[in-house]
């Protein structure tokens, strides 16, 4: 009896007869030979059907298979250096599960709207599968980094009574008789958790109701948000660059074949190792003026500005010490220069923009109360957040990494819509 296997493990069965549950990705024939391109979710393998070595029934079953038809295919595994996987199957039997008719996504070119309407099927393509495998490896590497460096995973709420960064881009809902919002960040809650556990991180969905249609924005996305007690701005930056380096090197080590499948220039990733270059906001403004940009001091950077800065470097670059007026209320001012804050945005190379935003947080309760007034935030709604400073305040820092932007950069994708299984964008809630 044949051993049941998956394509990923056929290297363990060379010379043996195995059965693989699979779909037909593609097919070609040459007289008395049929070549079946099979996939099973774990990988791809070519099944070779020789007319003179199988029954007429098996031969006809192979002929009847159409794109995305499903079947149990049995055969002998052999090494094949010319194959991308290094192995092939000499087919001996086929048990058809379903013959598919008129599969919508054919090998021809399709428009992006058509593909997004059929996202549930587009995921089956080799490129989309490879992206999701890389995404899963990035998630695994993220959790490994924090779990092995003294961080505790904490889950902040998704429904919140207040905003982390203003209410203009929040999804509003009713929580029985009260107003509530879908979270735009778990950061404030993670600060409370850090005071209990020292170093914590969250990993969960966040929502931004921005009516943005850029290639960098999604409405629903995943954020990784560490918070660390007794960590200042400088140590925060060191942890960030070690973290990003670890993730990129893990993908290079464990997903080389997937990177090749999507055509990623691997050489651009091999150089991503700490330390990363750093420039201040002031230096960035000076550079942009030299490059011909008309941007005044005190204005935030847009995508063209970030891209111009990133082009100077072959690694991610920190832009530090932004003006206080354009950053969030909780960021700690530089003691030597209160008009800027102890913060940094990490800009990915190759035009992928900000992948991390972080800062040292305000630990002075009186200063935080002043910030509430300046930003017109109701003190009663944020009293719990102020309590963190009233009872045992300490220097603390944190950051947030956007998963989908990071996947887009590591994969070299043009748009974040391919970085998540079912993207939610301004005009897309289907499928």
Automatic annotation (TrEMBL):
The answer on whether this UniProt entry bears the keyword Ligase reads yes
Where does this polypeptide localize? Cytoplasm
Show the GO MF annotations. Answer: asparagine-tRNA ligase activity
Q: Which reaction does it catalyse?
A: tRNA(Asn) + L-asparagine + ATP = L-asparaginyl-tRNA(Asn) + AMP + diphosphate + H(+)
What sequence ranges are listed for the domain Aminoacyl-transfer RNA synthetases class-II family profile?
132-431
Q: Which InterPro entries match?
A: Aa-tRNA-synt_II, aa-tRNA-synth_II, aa-tRNA-synth_II/BPL/LPL, Asn-tRNA-ligase, Asp/Asn-tRNA-synth_IIb, NA-bd_OB-fold, NA-bd_OB_tRNA
Top EC class, one word: ligase
In the UniProt record, the signal sequence range is: none
Assign the protein's first listed, main location to one coarse class: cytoplasm
What EC number(s) are associated with this protein in UniProt? 6.1.1.22
Q: Which UniProt keywords apply?
A: Aminoacyl-tRNA synthetase, ATP-binding, Cytoplasm, Ligase, Nucleotide-binding, Protein biosynthesis
Q: How does it assemble?
A: Homodimer.
Q: What family is it from?
A: Belongs to the class-II aminoacyl-tRNA synthetase family.
Q: Which NCBIfam families match?
A: asnS (TIGR00457), PRK03932.1 (NF003037), PRK05159.1 (NF003483)
Would you tell me the protein name for this molecule? Answer: Asparagine--tRNA ligase
The species this protein belongs to is Paenibacillus sediminis
What is this protein's gene name? asnS
């Amino acid at each position: 009896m044949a051993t049941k296997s998956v394509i990923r493990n056929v290297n363990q069965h060379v010379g043996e007869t195995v059965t693989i549950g699979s779909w037909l990705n593609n097919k070609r024939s040459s007289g008395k030979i049929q070549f079946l391109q099979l996939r099973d979710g774990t990988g791809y393998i070519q099944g070779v059907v020789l007319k003179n070595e199988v029954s007429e029934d098996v031969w006809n079953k192979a002929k009847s298979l159409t794109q995305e038809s499903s079947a149990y295919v049995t055969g002998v595994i052999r090494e094949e250096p010319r194959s991308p996987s290094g192995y092939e199957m000499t087919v001996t039997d086929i048990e058809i599960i379903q013959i598919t008719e008129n599969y919508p996504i054919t090998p021809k070119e399709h428009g992006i709207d058509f593909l997004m309407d059929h996202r549930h099927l587009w995921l089956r393509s080799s490129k989309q599968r490879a992206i999701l495998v890389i995404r899963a490896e990035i998630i695994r590497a993220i959790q490994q980094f924090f779990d092995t460096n003294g961080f505790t995973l904490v889950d902040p709420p998704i429904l919140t009574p207040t905003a982390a960064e203003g209410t203009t881009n929040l999804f509003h809902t009713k929580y029985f008789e009260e107003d509530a919002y879908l979270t735009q960040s778990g950061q404030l809650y993670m600060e409370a958790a850090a005071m209990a556990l020292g170093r914590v991180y969250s990993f969960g969905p966040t929502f931004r109701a921005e009516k943005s249609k850029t290639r960098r924005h999604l409405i629903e996305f995943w954020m990784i948000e560490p918070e660390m007690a007794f960590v200042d701005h400088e140590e925060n930056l060191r942890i960030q660059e070690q973290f990003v380096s670890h993730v990129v090197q893990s993908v290079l080590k464990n997903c080389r074949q997937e990177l090749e499948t999507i055509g990623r220039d691997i050489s651009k990733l091999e150089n991503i190792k700490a330390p990363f270059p750093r420039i201040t906001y002031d230096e960035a403004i000076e550079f942009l003026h030299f490059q011909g940009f008309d941007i005044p001091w005190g204005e935030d950077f847009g995508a063209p500005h970030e891209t111009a800065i990133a082009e100077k470097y072959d690694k991610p670059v920190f832009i530090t010490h932004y003006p206080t007026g354009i950053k969030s209320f909780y960021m700690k001012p530089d003691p030597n220069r209160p008009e800027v804050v102890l913060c940094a945005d990490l800009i990915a190379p190759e035009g992928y923009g900000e992948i991390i935003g972080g800062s040292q947080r305000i630990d002075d309760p009186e200063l935080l109360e002043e910030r509430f007034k300046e930003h017109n935030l109701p003190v009663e709604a944020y009293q719990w957040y102020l309590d963190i400073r009233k009872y045992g305040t300490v220097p603390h820092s944190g950051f947030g990494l956007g998963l989908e932007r990071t996947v887009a950069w590591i994969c070299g994708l043009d748009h974040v819509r391919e970085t998540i299984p079912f993207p939610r964008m301004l005009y897309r809630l289907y499928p």
